[in-house]
Amino acid sequence: MATITTFEELGIWQKGRELCKVIWSLTQKDTFAKDFGLKDQINRSSGSCMDNIAEGFERDGTKEFVQFLSISKGSIGETRSQLYRALDRGHITQAEFDQAFYMCKDESKDIGNFMRYLRSTDIKGNKYPRKPSAAAN
Predict the structure, then answer these.
(1) DSSP class of residue 122?
(2) N or C: which end of the chain has fewer CB within 10 A?
């Protein structure tokens, strides 16, 4: 398995970035662009997903990274909720909602799977070095 050295290499960060692009595009539409509160909030929550992945990765500790991934997952849930508001207000079509909704669901699932992986691995990051095994002494 290759070592990941930057957050940009993480598939979950890349997918978060793509989701941000989709959300931004939706918020540029006529009526959505004028709903300043919702427009700002949904852009911030979708951006929070990728930003928390990046921040957690840069902290160099698995425990902190998992905590930031949890925040990121929460931001995706917030984005999904805001998509319902955008649909209910007529800012987006059902097809646009479906595309963004399923991107959110997929991202949430992937983040959750990555969190489970990190919790089960011996990788501890720079702040949590492995203790030397008794066999190494």
Answers:
(1) S
(2) N
DSSP string, 26-75: HHTSHHHHH-HHHHHHHHHHHHHHHHHHHHHHHTTBHHHHHHHHHHHHHH
Number of domains present in the structure of the chain: 1
Classify each residue of 71-106 as buried b or exposed e, where b means 16 or more C-beta atoms within 10 Å of its C-beta: ebbbbbebbbebbeebbeeebbeeebbeebbebbee
**Which domain, by its residues, includes 39?**
17-120
Is 128 inside any structural domain? no
Q: What is the pLDDT of residues 68-96, one digit of tens each?
A: 999 999 999 999 999 999 999 999 999 99
* Distance separating alpha carbons of residues 85 and 34, to the nearest angstrom: 14
Tell me the whole-structure pTM to 2 decimals: 0.86
